[in-house]
Design brief:
DUF3175 domain-containing protein, globular, Phage_RSL1_Orf186, single chain
């Protein structure tokens, strides 16, 4: 049975809109900065606490794509936390890391990680 949540949202919103009309409209940037910021490094928390893989520390910082792929394969095959196949879990973690790093990931490391995808595919015999 779902609980019904009581809120005063509509009254507060109406009061704010009325106050804004009387004192002059504020810019949208002022409202956005008043919001509480999201906690930092949520992706780090995801990799540690979720039902992801038990990764070796610093696996994505390794110097060669083959070493990264071998470490991910080893972690995926020995992990008791994964919910899908070993290949899918390993590839998901690699893609997750690349996507979350975004533009801050150096080009050399990005190419190394993209090559690690190919090596991972080869390691699992999916080529």
């Amino acid at each position: 049975m779902a609980q019904v949540r009581k809120t005063t949202h509509s009254r507060k919103t109406a009061a704010r809109k009325g106050a804004r009309r009387k004192t002059g409209a504020r810019s949208t940037t002022a409202r956005k900065s008043a919001k509480r910021a999201a906690p930092k490094r949520w992706s780090q928390r995801v990799t540690k606490e979720s039902d992801a893989l038990d990764l070796k520390q610093g696996v994505f910082k390794l110097t060669s794509a083959k070493k990264i792929a071998a470490s991910l394969k080893r972690s995926a095959e020995h992990s008791a936390r994964r919910k899908s196949g070993a290949y899918r879990s390993a590839l998901s973690m690699l893609t997750f890391y690349i996507n979350r790093a975004g533009k801050t990931l150096p080009k050399t490391q990005r190419t190394r990680l993209e090559r690690a995808k190919v090596e991972l595919k080869r390691a699992f015999g999916r080529e």
